[in-house]
Design goal:
Blueprint: H1 6-11, H2 15-32, H3 37-43, H4 48-55, H5 63-72, H6 78-91, H7 106-117, E1 120-125, H8 136-143, H9 153-165, E2 176-182, H10 193-206, E3 212-217, E4 230-234, E5 243-248, E6 251-255, H11 258-274, H12 278-291
Parallel strand pairs: 1-2, 2-3
Antiparallel strand pairs: 1-4, 4-5, 5-6
Length: 292
Protein backbone atom coordinates (compact mmCIF):
# COMPACT_ATOMS: atom_id res chain seq x y z
CA UNK A 1 0.00 0.00 0.00
CA UNK A 2 1.29 3.46 -0.87
CA UNK A 3 1.78 5.97 1.84
CA UNK A 4 0.96 9.62 1.30
CA UNK A 5 1.87 11.32 -1.96
CA UNK A 6 2.88 14.97 -2.03
CA UNK A 7 0.08 16.05 -4.34
CA UNK A 8 -2.59 14.76 -2.01
CA UNK A 9 -0.96 16.51 0.96
CA UNK A 10 -0.97 19.80 -0.94
CA UNK A 11 -4.62 19.34 -1.84
CA UNK A 12 -5.53 19.23 1.84
CA UNK A 13 -5.16 22.95 2.33
CA UNK A 14 -5.75 23.10 6.08
CA UNK A 15 -3.90 21.60 9.05
CA UNK A 16 -7.15 20.14 10.40
CA UNK A 17 -7.62 17.95 7.34
CA UNK A 18 -3.93 17.06 7.24
CA UNK A 19 -4.30 15.69 10.78
CA UNK A 20 -7.29 13.61 9.69
CA UNK A 21 -5.39 12.20 6.71
CA UNK A 22 -2.32 11.44 8.81
CA UNK A 23 -4.41 9.72 11.47
CA UNK A 24 -6.17 7.60 8.85
CA UNK A 25 -2.86 6.58 7.28
CA UNK A 26 -1.41 5.58 10.63
CA UNK A 27 -4.48 3.51 11.47
CA UNK A 28 -4.29 1.67 8.14
CA UNK A 29 -0.59 0.98 8.60
CA UNK A 30 -1.23 -0.41 12.09
CA UNK A 31 -4.03 -2.64 10.85
CA UNK A 32 -1.93 -3.85 7.93
CA UNK A 33 0.88 -4.75 10.35
CA UNK A 34 -1.71 -6.55 12.54
CA UNK A 35 -0.66 -4.62 15.62
CA UNK A 36 -3.17 -3.85 18.34
CA UNK A 37 -3.86 -0.28 19.41
CA UNK A 38 -2.64 -1.11 22.91
CA UNK A 39 0.71 -2.38 21.62
CA UNK A 40 1.15 0.63 19.38
CA UNK A 41 0.35 2.98 22.25
CA UNK A 42 2.91 1.25 24.46
CA UNK A 43 5.61 1.80 21.82
CA UNK A 44 5.14 5.58 22.03
CA UNK A 45 4.87 5.63 25.81
CA UNK A 46 1.21 6.61 25.66
CA UNK A 47 -2.25 5.30 26.41
CA UNK A 48 -4.61 3.51 24.08
CA UNK A 49 -6.86 6.55 24.36
CA UNK A 50 -4.06 8.79 23.10
CA UNK A 51 -3.46 6.57 20.08
CA UNK A 52 -7.18 6.52 19.34
CA UNK A 53 -7.24 10.33 19.30
CA UNK A 54 -4.21 10.36 17.02
CA UNK A 55 -5.81 7.96 14.57
CA UNK A 56 -8.98 10.04 14.51
CA UNK A 57 -6.93 13.19 13.83
CA UNK A 58 -8.27 14.99 16.90
CA UNK A 59 -4.91 15.91 18.41
CA UNK A 60 -1.59 17.27 17.25
CA UNK A 61 1.26 14.89 16.36
CA UNK A 62 4.79 14.73 17.72
CA UNK A 63 7.43 13.79 15.15
CA UNK A 64 9.09 11.38 17.57
CA UNK A 65 5.83 9.49 18.17
CA UNK A 66 5.07 9.14 14.47
CA UNK A 67 8.65 8.08 13.67
CA UNK A 68 8.44 5.36 16.34
CA UNK A 69 5.10 4.16 14.98
CA UNK A 70 6.46 3.98 11.43
CA UNK A 71 9.32 1.83 12.66
CA UNK A 72 6.91 -0.41 14.57
CA UNK A 73 4.72 -0.75 11.46
CA UNK A 74 7.66 -1.74 9.30
CA UNK A 75 7.93 1.45 7.25
CA UNK A 76 11.68 1.70 6.67
CA UNK A 77 11.93 3.37 3.26
CA UNK A 78 13.49 6.81 3.74
CA UNK A 79 11.31 8.51 1.12
CA UNK A 80 8.08 7.13 2.56
CA UNK A 81 9.07 8.16 6.05
CA UNK A 82 9.99 11.64 4.83
CA UNK A 83 6.56 12.13 3.28
CA UNK A 84 4.80 11.15 6.50
CA UNK A 85 7.03 13.22 8.75
CA UNK A 86 6.65 16.23 6.45
CA UNK A 87 2.90 15.85 6.83
CA UNK A 88 3.37 15.85 10.61
CA UNK A 89 5.07 19.23 10.33
CA UNK A 90 2.35 20.58 8.03
CA UNK A 91 -0.43 19.33 10.29
CA UNK A 92 0.99 21.26 13.22
CA UNK A 93 1.01 24.60 11.40
CA UNK A 94 -1.49 26.97 12.96
CA UNK A 95 -4.44 27.91 10.75
CA UNK A 96 -5.33 31.55 10.07
CA UNK A 97 -8.18 31.22 12.57
CA UNK A 98 -5.72 30.68 15.44
CA UNK A 99 -5.70 34.45 15.93
CA UNK A 100 -9.33 34.10 17.07
CA UNK A 101 -8.82 31.03 19.28
CA UNK A 102 -9.51 33.05 22.42
CA UNK A 103 -13.04 33.66 21.11
CA UNK A 104 -13.80 30.14 19.91
CA UNK A 105 -14.44 26.95 21.85
CA UNK A 106 -12.25 24.07 20.65
CA UNK A 107 -15.19 22.29 19.03
CA UNK A 108 -15.86 25.24 16.75
CA UNK A 109 -12.18 25.77 15.98
CA UNK A 110 -12.16 22.23 14.59
CA UNK A 111 -15.16 23.05 12.43
CA UNK A 112 -13.53 26.14 10.89
CA UNK A 113 -10.54 24.01 9.93
CA UNK A 114 -12.77 21.37 8.31
CA UNK A 115 -14.89 23.97 6.53
CA UNK A 116 -11.78 25.53 4.99
CA UNK A 117 -10.76 22.26 3.34
CA UNK A 118 -14.14 20.85 2.29
CA UNK A 119 -14.88 20.30 -1.38
CA UNK A 120 -18.65 20.39 -0.76
CA UNK A 121 -20.65 22.02 2.01
CA UNK A 122 -24.34 21.18 2.36
CA UNK A 123 -26.42 22.79 5.08
CA UNK A 124 -29.93 23.25 6.41
CA UNK A 125 -30.90 26.27 8.50
CA UNK A 126 -34.32 27.13 9.93
CA UNK A 127 -33.56 30.23 12.01
CA UNK A 128 -30.79 32.35 10.48
CA UNK A 129 -29.11 32.88 7.15
CA UNK A 130 -26.13 30.48 7.23
CA UNK A 131 -22.90 32.12 8.42
CA UNK A 132 -21.11 31.78 5.09
CA UNK A 133 -23.82 33.88 3.42
CA UNK A 134 -24.39 36.55 6.09
CA UNK A 135 -23.67 40.23 5.60
CA UNK A 136 -21.53 41.96 8.20
CA UNK A 137 -24.48 43.93 9.62
CA UNK A 138 -26.65 40.80 9.84
CA UNK A 139 -23.85 38.91 11.58
CA UNK A 140 -23.30 41.81 13.99
CA UNK A 141 -27.01 41.89 14.87
CA UNK A 142 -26.83 38.19 15.79
CA UNK A 143 -23.53 38.42 17.66
CA UNK A 144 -24.71 41.44 19.67
CA UNK A 145 -28.12 39.89 20.41
CA UNK A 146 -29.88 42.68 18.56
CA UNK A 147 -27.91 45.55 20.10
CA UNK A 148 -25.08 46.34 17.65
CA UNK A 149 -24.61 49.77 19.22
CA UNK A 150 -23.39 48.01 22.37
CA UNK A 151 -21.00 45.65 20.60
CA UNK A 152 -17.63 45.35 22.31
CA UNK A 153 -14.27 44.49 20.78
CA UNK A 154 -14.72 40.72 21.15
CA UNK A 155 -18.10 40.86 19.45
CA UNK A 156 -16.61 42.79 16.55
CA UNK A 157 -13.82 40.21 16.26
CA UNK A 158 -16.36 37.39 16.16
CA UNK A 159 -18.05 39.11 13.23
CA UNK A 160 -14.70 39.63 11.53
CA UNK A 161 -13.96 35.92 11.95
CA UNK A 162 -17.23 35.12 10.18
CA UNK A 163 -16.35 37.47 7.33
CA UNK A 164 -12.93 35.84 7.03
CA UNK A 165 -14.55 32.40 6.82
CA UNK A 166 -16.57 33.54 3.82
CA UNK A 167 -13.41 33.90 1.73
CA UNK A 168 -13.49 30.13 1.31
CA UNK A 169 -16.33 30.59 -1.20
CA UNK A 170 -14.17 32.59 -3.59
CA UNK A 171 -11.27 31.54 -5.79
CA UNK A 172 -10.44 28.58 -8.01
CA UNK A 173 -10.51 26.01 -5.19
CA UNK A 174 -13.81 27.23 -3.71
CA UNK A 175 -16.10 24.45 -2.47
CA UNK A 176 -19.59 23.86 -3.79
CA UNK A 177 -22.07 25.29 -1.29
CA UNK A 178 -25.65 24.05 -1.30
CA UNK A 179 -27.93 25.53 1.35
CA UNK A 180 -31.57 24.90 2.20
CA UNK A 181 -33.28 27.43 4.47
CA UNK A 182 -36.77 27.73 5.88
CA UNK A 183 -38.90 30.52 4.40
CA UNK A 184 -39.29 32.06 7.87
CA UNK A 185 -35.60 33.05 7.73
CA UNK A 186 -36.45 35.53 4.95
CA UNK A 187 -38.94 37.38 7.16
CA UNK A 188 -37.20 37.30 10.54
CA UNK A 189 -36.07 40.91 10.89
CA UNK A 190 -32.61 40.33 12.27
CA UNK A 191 -31.15 43.82 12.68
CA UNK A 192 -34.29 45.52 11.38
CA UNK A 193 -35.77 46.10 7.92
CA UNK A 194 -32.71 47.80 6.41
CA UNK A 195 -30.32 45.06 7.49
CA UNK A 196 -32.66 42.28 6.35
CA UNK A 197 -33.23 43.94 2.97
CA UNK A 198 -29.48 44.22 2.43
CA UNK A 199 -29.11 40.58 3.49
CA UNK A 200 -31.65 39.46 0.88
CA UNK A 201 -29.82 41.51 -1.74
CA UNK A 202 -26.63 39.74 -0.73
CA UNK A 203 -28.27 36.33 -1.13
CA UNK A 204 -29.47 37.30 -4.60
CA UNK A 205 -25.93 38.33 -5.50
CA UNK A 206 -24.21 35.26 -4.02
CA UNK A 207 -26.56 32.83 -5.76
CA UNK A 208 -25.33 34.09 -9.12
CA UNK A 209 -22.00 32.39 -8.39
CA UNK A 210 -21.68 28.98 -10.08
CA UNK A 211 -20.58 27.20 -6.89
CA UNK A 212 -23.48 28.39 -4.70
CA UNK A 213 -27.03 27.03 -4.69
CA UNK A 214 -29.85 28.13 -2.40
CA UNK A 215 -33.28 26.59 -1.93
CA UNK A 216 -36.10 27.84 0.28
CA UNK A 217 -38.55 25.49 1.94
CA UNK A 218 -41.96 27.23 1.83
CA UNK A 219 -44.13 27.67 4.91
CA UNK A 220 -46.67 25.04 3.91
CA UNK A 221 -44.07 22.26 3.83
CA UNK A 222 -41.41 23.50 6.26
CA UNK A 223 -40.38 21.38 9.19
CA UNK A 224 -40.74 17.92 7.66
CA UNK A 225 -37.26 17.40 6.27
CA UNK A 226 -35.21 17.85 9.44
CA UNK A 227 -35.63 18.74 13.10
CA UNK A 228 -32.91 21.38 13.25
CA UNK A 229 -29.88 22.93 11.54
CA UNK A 230 -26.94 20.80 10.44
CA UNK A 231 -24.06 20.84 7.97
CA UNK A 232 -22.63 18.00 5.90
CA UNK A 233 -18.99 18.38 4.84
CA UNK A 234 -17.46 16.38 1.99
CA UNK A 235 -13.76 16.29 1.14
CA UNK A 236 -11.78 15.66 -2.02
CA UNK A 237 -9.29 13.36 -0.29
CA UNK A 238 -10.05 9.64 -0.60
CA UNK A 239 -8.95 8.99 2.98
CA UNK A 240 -11.66 11.17 4.45
CA UNK A 241 -15.29 10.26 4.94
CA UNK A 242 -18.11 12.78 5.05
CA UNK A 243 -18.68 14.56 8.36
CA UNK A 244 -21.97 15.90 9.71
CA UNK A 245 -21.71 18.85 12.08
CA UNK A 246 -24.59 19.49 14.48
CA UNK A 247 -24.25 22.41 16.87
CA UNK A 248 -26.12 22.69 20.18
CA UNK A 249 -26.09 25.02 23.17
CA UNK A 250 -23.37 23.16 25.05
CA UNK A 251 -21.12 22.26 22.12
CA UNK A 252 -21.29 20.34 18.87
CA UNK A 253 -21.44 16.82 17.47
CA UNK A 254 -19.22 15.49 14.70
CA UNK A 255 -20.90 12.47 13.14
CA UNK A 256 -18.84 10.20 10.89
CA UNK A 257 -20.38 6.71 11.02
CA UNK A 258 -21.84 5.60 7.67
CA UNK A 259 -25.28 5.01 9.18
CA UNK A 260 -25.27 8.53 10.66
CA UNK A 261 -24.19 10.11 7.39
CA UNK A 262 -26.96 8.20 5.62
CA UNK A 263 -29.65 9.64 7.92
CA UNK A 264 -28.59 13.22 7.24
CA UNK A 265 -28.03 12.63 3.53
CA UNK A 266 -31.60 11.37 3.26
CA UNK A 267 -32.82 14.40 5.20
CA UNK A 268 -31.09 16.65 2.67
CA UNK A 269 -32.70 14.72 -0.16
CA UNK A 270 -36.14 15.22 1.37
CA UNK A 271 -35.49 18.90 1.90
CA UNK A 272 -34.38 19.32 -1.70
CA UNK A 273 -37.68 17.84 -2.87
CA UNK A 274 -39.77 19.95 -0.48
CA UNK A 275 -37.93 23.18 -1.29
CA UNK A 276 -38.38 25.53 -4.20
CA UNK A 277 -35.88 25.08 -7.02
CA UNK A 278 -32.92 27.51 -7.03
CA UNK A 279 -34.63 29.49 -9.83
CA UNK A 280 -37.95 29.75 -7.99
CA UNK A 281 -36.05 30.52 -4.79
CA UNK A 282 -34.71 33.70 -6.41
CA UNK A 283 -38.31 34.75 -7.05
CA UNK A 284 -39.13 33.99 -3.41
CA UNK A 285 -36.22 36.20 -2.33
CA UNK A 286 -37.42 39.05 -4.53
CA UNK A 287 -40.94 38.77 -3.13
CA UNK A 288 -39.67 38.72 0.45
CA UNK A 289 -37.63 41.82 -0.25
CA UNK A 290 -40.69 43.63 -1.55
CA UNK A 291 -42.68 42.62 1.52
CA UNK A 292 -40.25 44.15 4.00
Amino acid sequence: MGMIDDRRSEAATGPTVRRLILGTQLRRLRERAEITRASAAYSIRGSESKLSRMESGRVGFKERDVADLLTLYGVTDDEERRKVLTLVEQSNVQGWWHAYSDLMPKWFEDYVGLEESASQIKAYENQFVPGLLQTEDYALAIASRGRPENADRDTERKVHLRMQRQKVLLGQSAPKLWVVIDESVLYRRIGGARVLRAQLDHLLEMTTLPNISLQVVPYQTSGYGAEGPFTLLRFGEQELSDIVYVEHLAGALYLEKPEEIEIYSRALDRLAVEAETPARTRQTLLKAREDI
